[in-house]
User: Fold this.
Amino acid sequence: MHKKLFIPGPTEVRQDILDAQATPLIGHRTKAFTELYTGIIDKLKELLETNNFITVLTASGTIFMEGAIRNCVNNDVLCCVNGAFSDRWFKIAQKCDRNSDVITVDWGKAIKPEMVDEKLKSKKYEALTLVQNETSTGVRNPIEDIAKVMKNYPDVLFLVDTVSSLMGDKINIEELGIDICLASSQKAFALPPGLALCIVSDKALEKAKTVKGRGHYCDFVGLKDYFDKKGQTPSTPAITLMYAMDKQLDKIKAEGMGNRFKRHAEMAKYVQDWGKKYFSMFSEPGYESVTVSCMNNTRKISVADLNTELGKRGYAISNGYGKLKELAFRIAHMGDLTLDEIKELINNINEILGI
Amino acid sequence: MHKKLFIPGPTEVRQDILDAQATPLIGHRTKAFTELYTGIIDKLKELLETNNFITVLTASGTIFMEGAIRNCVNNDVLCCVNGAFSDRWFKIAQKCDRNSDVITVDWGKAIKPEMVDEKLKSKKYEALTLVQNETSTGVRNPIEDIAKVMKNYPDVLFLVDTVSSLMGDKINIEELGIDICLASSQKAFALPPGLALCIVSDKALEKAKTVKGRGHYCDFVGLKDYFDKKGQTPSTPAITLMYAMDKQLDKIKAEGMGNRFKRHAEMAKYVQDWGKKYFSMFSEPGYESVTVSCMNNTRKISVADLNTELGKRGYAISNGYGKLKELAFRIAHMGDLTLDEIKELINNINEILGI
Assistant:
């Protein structure tokens, strides 16, 4: 039996979108592919309300964490770390042999604008990395307030991971001055995994031209040149995944972004009201994510057993990430899931736990 | 109307394999995914007759050209260039800021073992790059003879691109001492694009540990550590493409690798006999690829018009690559295509051209 996915990626993908992948292939150097790909980019620009350069690459979103470093940093980068994925970005910067400093707060806490200001005052950095929505802890960092600080440091590129929020949480990419906004298909887009997106500002593209050793696969300058010239990608794209993305973007447009954000906010409120009533939230009050909720396991239930029981009923949720495995648990409410489906899940959890 | 693909990637994918992608998703940190992924790796090891480490990454094959350089070369690499893809590897090495020398021969010619020997004698290199099957020219480089030379230079890693040949052309990975063997799903595997494979020797893994700035997404050491520990990939994999790969590997096993190689050889002979009769081969005699044939346009036909006419009948072939656009044309005979389908295509071409 299929378990409906209430995990923070991959999220549940509707059957018509899965089926779109089964369309026979076309060559990726044909006019038909150019139409498909430029159509996708145009739809993304419209839905995300940006004119920045957008590239869709065959990869997981992680590739753009690495790409952002290799394209935008010669030497010094400052990484905001408050969970597993922001810590990964910091480690990736080190693995790319860059000087990497950190702003660290405990898991579950948010990065505050004054922390960023203090650190940026103290040393000249080329870029700041921020995971806007920490999938591991259910924390939404206050990107709007951090963006205000960033405006005072126009030489510092603003690199933002919105992997588990873009399309579910409103991100004003240009207004916030985000230079790199990265995301991936298997989260709030409600698509199968395999496509990563990156929205790149002109400032980031200019900077990239000054950075050596950018490589090829994730070279923003090369990706943009190729797109401008041919409306295609330099390397063979995952065509069947693009069929699915094209169809899904139409469905998202039909829903309307406003409705989509509202639906996410309603699902988040429902889960978090429940979480506060029966458990407590792992995330700092006021900084709860709208796409994934992380609850402290205050009732000391066996999260593994709960998931086994849920599995028998056709649902899957997530344990706490890494070191939080049995100390917390996560329910994702993103993508195409509805409030009714969330209620159904919660009713089943209540039944299983007898609460 | 779908055009059956006789182009050198993506190749024609059978409907049952396309349909396998539409299977509902599972979490990539579940036992079910571990079983799927380790199953795929075991099947690949059996079919390719190797015990070397194999990783399957969400990407086009190009990523491993870059990964091979970033993992295996600190300073100096020697690149064999005899077509567009081998030239790409050389350029990627430069883009990764490595000292890159070349052995160049004209497009259509093969790299000879004595050229490699001469160059390796003259300078100390850390690695040699070779595209075994040049998709752009239809040339199969004599890898068996080059491998014999490489045995005299055990400190030089042997990096080989088999993107358009692996699973259609017999490559004895371990016997030939190939340290990096890279390929991708959309060629002789007859799968949709989006998955790249890399087969990595212990020697390459040891070398990688000494190379700084390997990054994360394509770090062979990290990929192997994660696989050894969890039987999974560090980043979210393209699960639906893996469903298709898993099913296709079973079908390949059922056909038998010997039969598969024989079928490819028969298709190649048929196309090349025809090519020699009505045109001439662009590839040097004796070095014709078994997966893709490149014909000189000696009859000065319009390749574009031929393809338009073929399109109306439900077939697609390729023009010459890049600068060869109208000077040559290519017919791919790889993946799951049969000799009967090749004959049908050739009959249609003969009819259209009136030959």
Notes: The radius of gyration of chain A is 20 Å. The first helix of chain A runs from residue 15 to 20. Chain A touches chain B through 56 residues (CB under 8 Å).
